[in-house]
Amino acid sequence: MNNIQADGTVLECTAMKNDDNRGIDVMDPVLKNEENNLRLLKPEEKRRAEEMMEGNQVKQEEEMKDDLEEEEEQASEKKKSEGMDLIALLDTPQAKRLIKRALDSGEQVDLSAIVSSTLSHTVANLGQPNLGQAKPMIALTENNEEDKLSGVELLMSAALRDAAQQASGDPSQNVRPEQNNFFHQVAKAISRSNDLGLDTESSLQNLITIAAPDHPTEGEPIGLSDIVRGKQILLDTLKHLLGQLGLQYFHPIQVYYYMIDEENRKDPIWKRHLHRYLPPVPKEKVLRMTDGLYLSQLAYSNNCTQIQSHVVGEFQIDPNGHKGLWTLRNCSAHSKLFQPAHFMMVQQPLPKSSVPLEVALVIRGTHQPADFLTDGALNAVPYRGGFVHEGVWNSAQWIRETYENDLKMLLQQHRNTQKNAKLPLKVYLIGHSLGGAAASVAAIEFNDVPGFEAYAVGFGSPSSLSPILSRAMKNRIITVVNDADCVPRMSARSIVSAWIQILQFNFTDLCLNDLNRMMPIIKSKYAVFGPLTEVMLNDWRSKMEDQIRKEATKQLSRTQKAVANASIDQYEMLIPIGDCVHFYRDGTSWQSEAITLECSAT
User: Fold this and answer.
1) What are phi and psi of 199, to 5 degrees?
2) For residue range 198-219, what is the model confidence (pLDDT) as tens digits?
3) What is the total count of domains within the chain?
4) Count of CB atoms situated within 10 Å of the CB of 499
């Protein structure tokens, strides 16, 4: 049963059978509800109404689908338009100039910065002649194939060029003009065969990242075999060095006061006395060492592009006009075990100038994990009738094996263009710390090659060679020592010797002196106790003095037996290589003296 209210609302009624009360089950009003209206229709009419409802539903779904496709198409057109606007912006002379500048310098290309700068440039030129009619900031010549490329094609070409350099294993090598033209043509082909309008800003930024050459990196990971080998070297070295003098005897107070005692003894007066009768370093020698110091620092650059930019900027002028420009021939910014990072640059003399060919080979010091493993190979191994630091020797041998044939070829090519066919090849090896020691030993090796004259300068190089071998190279090799730097004084023998001295050091007196200096300070803080302060402090001081003496006696007793059985005679004496130049603080300023006697490990 259905009732219609005065407002036209249909109320659905449910008839209850049997003895149940018949009544109206009042539902929520249903206005214009087609499903409810169907209940009032005849079966045939009801079927036609249902078909009509299904048709309407399908029509609505199709309309919604069409609307959605239209919205997506509009969004795609907008996205495409935005992409085309970005690409057009990259094609402007201002944007291309910024891209080329960043790529040439090896810097990371910042897309947002280029867009911002280009837009600013455009705004600044409002009211001026149209960009298309204006004269470009940099004249683009038709003969320059690179200038014909669009902004995106320029990035593509640079990406291909960088990929080829990386694949060759020598990222610093120069690309020949015909190779550049090939990369340009490939970039154009890719550009023409792809709808670049669909590229987004993120994809362009990825392209820029690939194109920017040789980005800074922390270095290549060390192989598992290198790690295992390096670990074993370190363990063997520690076992060999310390023997029974293990770290179980380490006492922080003893080490602390030993260092204070060493500093007190080797004060500025002691340094001035030590150098009193030694000649100063000539200015010309200092200037040459300054160039070497600059290059040794340059070897720590993150990538070869940075090194190349400095070589071009700082080593392109010959004041005498007899030599050509320095060029970077080889470069490696990553090290492996016994294969240090380095770079080599060549200064080619002018034809028929009868000037020797000069090569500078700069070796980096400790910087990456592999370098620390090389440092750890402290064992002295036999070498030319003496001994040499194992890690340094392996690195120097690798340098010679890597470059000997290449340098021979350079020497022969040079002699073919000069009046004097017997001109030597001058090889200058330079380095800091581990690199300086490897450079010095490599210089010894290269001097064995006919036609080679090798010289070396090391800054803060560790003790690496037996005294008899070091003295023989004093005219070819210089080691620069900075004041009290411990590295040039460090070898297996000197480490064990210093450790024995520390374990034998009685720190009682120095510690009691510090206690005496503390008493007035403590007394002033506890003066509120009046006469009791003196009594309390005297009692405390007496107990502390007894404790200090007992602690020192206990430590010396612990180490006495181990020290008695220890000897440094089993360790070979190694010292810095060649002549030593010592820069030191004399209490008022820096002084430098050339130690014309042999370098020593002290």
Assistant:
1) -70, 145
2) 444 454 444 444 444 443 344 4
3) 3
4) 22
